[in-house]
Amino acid sequence: MKTLGLLGGMSAESTAIYYRELNRLVRERLGGLHSADLLIWSVDFAPIAALQADGQWDETGRILADGARRLEQAGAAAIVLCTNTMHLNAPVIAGAVSVPFLHIGDATAQALKARGVRRPLLLATRFTMEQAFYKDRLVAAGLEPLTPDEADRARLHAIIYDELCQGVIRPESKAEALAMVAKGRAAGADGVIFGCTEVGLLLSQDDLDVPTVDTTLVHCETAVDFALS
Questions:
Q1: 96: Cβ contacts below 8 Å, ≥ 6 apart
Q2: CA–CA gap between residue 165 and residue 185 (Å, rounded)
Q3: Would you place residue 222 in the very low, low, confident or very high pLDDT band (cuts 50, 70, 90)?
Q4: Dist. CA 210–CA 182, nearest whole Å
Q5: pLDDT tens digits for range 77-126
Q6: Which residues contact 102 (CB under 8 A, 6 or more apart)?
Q7: 197 is catalytic
């Protein structure tokens, strides 16, 4: 089994899901007492979030590239960045190491296509919904991602940072997110991307009548495929 290097903490809530799911998948595939061979570099999210808000992406890239190098030096055979938003820094992080960088956008695109989705509604932070780094990756894979309107993007961003990243799950926020999905369906969305690693804390496939892709889960599946290849 290859060792996976998890670059996490953004937020700690979703990184815990990565740890749980990676171990579950390895146990399912290998049986018995098997678990994933992991290294974790988990950052303090507060300074990262402040840099995000200030648009200091060069600095976040420097911090995360340093973390990736440390993981490689410790023996990681691949880097798994446990957050969608910080894939904005993916080129810098991937360029800092010689081992593979397993991109969450690629895992998401493959899962969407496998589910027959062409026009997914992207639910994520404002950074991911409004900047090109993530949507362009989906477009390159032949998809046509949609996003909520400006007011809903702002509200969803607040739900993620003020609630989900802090372990707060509110039924009222779930209702708001479901209303955003209904609007997206009316605009032609034929699937939904849980495009922030915390969105799966609020919504699940059982809540929706269209195919969904939880990016955290499909990223874990891709990582285990690599680890056991």
A1: 65, 66, 68, 69
A2: 26
A3: very high
A4: 11
A5: 999 999 999 999 999 999 999 999 999 999 999 999 999 999 999 999 99
A6: 78, 79, 80, 219, 222, 223, 226
A7: no
Is the preceding omega at residue 173 within 30 degrees of 0, hence cis? no
- Please give the model's pTM, rounded to 2 decimal places: 0.95
196 catalytically annotated: yes
37-69 confidence digits (pLDDT tens): 999 999 999 999 999 999 999 999 999 999 999
Return d(Cα 164, Cα 158) in angstroms, integer: 9
Q: Which residue has the tokens 């990756």?
A: 137
- Helix, strand, coil fractions of the chain, as percent rounded to 5: 60, 10, 30
Antiparallel, parallel or unpaired: β 78-81 and 4-8: parallel
Q: What value does the mean pLDDT of the chain take?
A: 97
Catalytic choice (60, 85, 165, 196): 196
Find out whether 170 and 149 touch, Cβ atoms under 8 Å: no
In the block, which residue shows the tokens 């950052």? 43
Residues 14/30, Cβ–Cβ less than 8 Å: no
User: Which residue is catalytic, options 15, 60, 83, 125?
Assistant: 83
